[in-house]
Design goal:
Blueprint (H helix, E strand, L loop, with lengths): L10 E4 L10 E6 L4 E7 L2 E8 L2 H12 L23 H17 L28 H10 L11 H8 L3 H12 L3 H19 L5 H7 L5 H12 L3 H8 L11
Antiparallel strand pairs: 1-2, 2-3, 3-4
Helix pairs in contact: 3-4, 3-6, 6-9, 7-8
Length: about 250
Amino acid sequence: MTTGSMDVLKDVSFLENSYKYFLENVLILRFDNFYRLLVVHENEILTDRKYKSPKRAKTAFIKLYDSQKWKESDEPEWSDFFEPGSLRDKKRAILSNYLTRWDKRGPDMTAGRKGIVRVYNKQRDPKKKDTANPVEKAVCLVLSTPNGKLKEITKNDFSKASGIDYRLLEVKFKKERNLCPFDFIRREKLHRAAMTLEHNQSISIAYLSRFLGFDSKEDFETAFNEYFCIKPKRYREIKNPALINHGGRR
């Protein structure tokens, strides 16, 4: 595989426990002369940075996302590097989509937990008009916010992140995403909850609802059922069949 600048992709390493950071896919891509740290969640590229070694890429990941992990004791678990052709279909599609987008936009993406992700570079000419999409900025604000902080996001935070008045952002957000910014926060909570129910068999649903900032267990269960058309307990059982005969956690 090649990118727009003719750099050849050699190998790929995945973060095997990305769910513990509430992230769908985290990769380190090895090219001829550098490594790229790529973080993808909800089809949004949260981080895309270049490093001289895999160790630096892994250290950068910890600095960017350590506050988002489920437990303080959790540590990132990286796979060995292997050829892209050996990836499973889903991960191969993610990688292929990334390379296609990389070809179209070039390698000037910057990212970070406190920064807005997409195509605006911190080193850009301040006289140039910022043409980055305000909705994408608002989306990246939500996706890069730790679980316990999602409920603290305000209209003013959305305005600062997007660079426009919240009322105008809400109109644009509804037009592009078919929901308002705060509904998007609620949806993100539900996706993070689903990831946790699938991979963490010990946590109770009551604790999970509090951890993600829902008002109550009942409020969480209702929202989850309305969005996924299945109750949280049943969702966990389907993803972990062995729990059906052992009662699971409530």
